[in-house]
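hey so u asked for the seq, here:
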Amino acid sequence: MAYRLGIDHGTTNTVASIAADGAPAQLGYFTSIDLDADETMPGQAAPSPSRPQAPAPTADSPAVGSSPQTGSTQQRPGSAPSPGPYGPNLPEPGPPLTQPHGAGGGPGGPGDYPPGPAGDGSGGSGSKLISIIASAVVLVGVAVGVGFLISGRGEPGRATASPSGFFPPVSPPGQSPTPSASSSQTPSGAPSASARASPSGTPSSSTAQKLPSSAAIPQRVVIVPMRFDGGPDRPLYLVDTERKIKQVELPSPDGGNSNPIMLASRNTIIYANGGVLRVMAADGSGDRKLFNRDPAGCDKVAHASWSLTDPNVILLTCKLSTGKFGLLVVGLDGRLIRRLDAGKKVIGDAGISPDGQTVLYWASDNSNQEGGAIYTLPVIGTGEPKPLTNSAAGVDADPAWSPDGTQIAFRRKVLGSNEDVFVMNADGSGVRAVATTPAADFKPIWSPDSKTLLIISNRKSALGGPGSTFDLWLTRASDGQVLTNLDLKARQITRPFWTQR
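ran it, structure tokens below
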């Protein structure tokens, strides 16, 4: 007969089976990932030093599928955590825990339990019980250790749940997973890096690094920096926009992770951690600092954008020790290619256009407001910044290129109002509202087909007022129709990655 111990360690359930006859015990486990998120955004609280346990998701879910014209809503029931296709399988339930045979009045010692099968009289069943208990204690220690590794934060060198369910089958043996300048994918219709000049108008300044790489993340999957408690950490999660696979945390260092970016190949992730850029494969493996030596003149990286047409080039928004900001074009080796003059003291959310020719950003001389007017500037550094919006119309920020390069989504806050999301043409014309709920709507990102947006919001329903948690709302860019939400219920979320911005 086997004895079965169940251990619940955080979000990890561990099951140990102990053989009564001294045979090797079996240990099984399964993970049920409860998510967490952060960054001080509109309506989001600043992190606290503590790291309380993540709250369980509530049954209430933001309503979806409502139209801005009708205001009708549909309630989405909460979904229970499950191991998902990326986690180990739960072992088949064993027999219920019973009193041990021979622990009572049979041969081997007195007691209150019913007698078990007749013993041989040698050694007694009491000693066998002691042996079983000792084995159980050892197994419990092993089980707790395994549970700790599985449910622990995903720092380099610490285990986390496998994101394998998000990836296609492994490439055939012998196929190199490492991207290079000549093999990196580019948007359809765009020339490859080997077929065109770099943004400097000359060959790229640095040789492509050997970056960590894995199978590509499917286009329906987004990378979301978020947390669910009031602690200082903001892990990165893979989230399925079609909700077919439960989100999973990628291993990353402690701290406020943010600004994940990828090339069109979607097999390598660059992200910011504490003002320093790091890089890892799309499955979370191989995490390390991107630069061996930090770029000159960049005290802290506030934002980064990876050129789709030259994978050796990154645009950095740097915060300087003087309190001002700078725009730097650098190589993957950290070497400075050029500085850009943004024309203002404070800048943010700078991104390279899909064709690799233009920089999009917001800028202001007022350091007390989170935004200003939206500008473009040639990436080669010639010419003056061109304003696309007028700050008199509102404080604008969070600009993002559509993948086809024809539209720009952004956040606007009008005096006395909250944050709303707008879309305009690439030249600044045709400004139209997309999300104007009573809640905070900000940091829009585009779908790969340039037709929909994912918008961070704390709304309680498709058109509702502010609630206590944040979610991502899939919204049609043409008319503002809310299509669905991802039901994340996060404490804080900062801009995800879906397509280049």
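The chain is about 5% helix and 30% strand. Residues 1-40, 48-124, 144-160, 170-207 have pLDDT under 50 and may be disordered.
lmk if thats what u needed
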